[in-house]
């Protein structure tokens, strides 16, 4: 199975991404893009997309970017993450673009830039850095 098919299959089994209504837009070696269309169910009290939803798609984008470079039989888990929320998440789409900064045999460092897009304009609203762990023999828990 190609890394793209593996990532898409795994993403399709993530209950949280399904609940959020997030979609996996693109997958390439070392990078992944996840999109969330804002709706009331993922908003906070001021009408912005909740920081938890922003963090969730950013974390998944980083993790799946890392998985594209891991062995076929491996799984990925986040060991550590930090997110800077720089502006409210409001727009037509919230786009998380994850990319690998440094891939290692056990640990991978990735970064996700999160943008709010409105009317063709894009604004950086969050930056996540994460350390991901390669987990042998955990390709898919639900299999």
Descriptive terms for the model:
single chain; 143 residues; alpha+beta; Thiol Ester Dehydrase, Chain A; 6-stranded antiparallel beta sheet; 3 helices; 22% helix; 44% strand
Walkthrough of the structure:
- This protein has 143 residues and is an alpha+beta fold.
- It has one domain (3-136): Thiol Ester Dehydrase, Chain A (Roll).
- 22% of the residues lie in helices and 44% in strands.
- It is built from 3 helices and 6 strands.
- The protein has helices at 3-11, 15-20, 51-67; strands spanning 23-28, 31-36, 74-85, 93-103, 107-118, 121-136.
- The protein has a 6-stranded antiparallel beta sheet.
- The longest helix is centred in the middle third of the chain and has 17 residues, at 51-67.
- The protein is globular and about 45 Å long.
- The mean pLDDT is 95.
Describe the secondary-structure layout.
Layout: H1 3-11, H2 15-20, E1 23-28, E2 31-36, H3 51-67, E3 74-85, E4 93-103, E5 107-118, E6 121-136
Antiparallel strand pairs: 1-2, 2-4, 3-6, 4-5, 5-6
Strand content: 35-45%
Task: Tell me the name of the CATH class.
Answer: Alpha Beta
N/C terminus separation: 15 Å
Count the domains. 1
Strand order of the largest sheet: 1-2-4-5-6-3
Can you tell me the CATH topology? Thiol Ester Dehydrase, Chain A
CATH superfamily descriptor: Hotdog Thioesterase
Largest sheet: 6 strands, antiparallel
Overall geometric form: globular
Radius of gyration: 15 Å
Q: Unreliable segments (pLDDT under 50, ≥5 consecutive)? A: none
The helicity comes to 10-25%
Number of strands: 6
pLDDT averaged over residues: 95
Please write the string of helix (H) and strand (E) elements: HHEEHEEEE
Count of DSSP H/I helices: 3
Which CATH architecture is right? Roll
SSE class:
alpha+beta
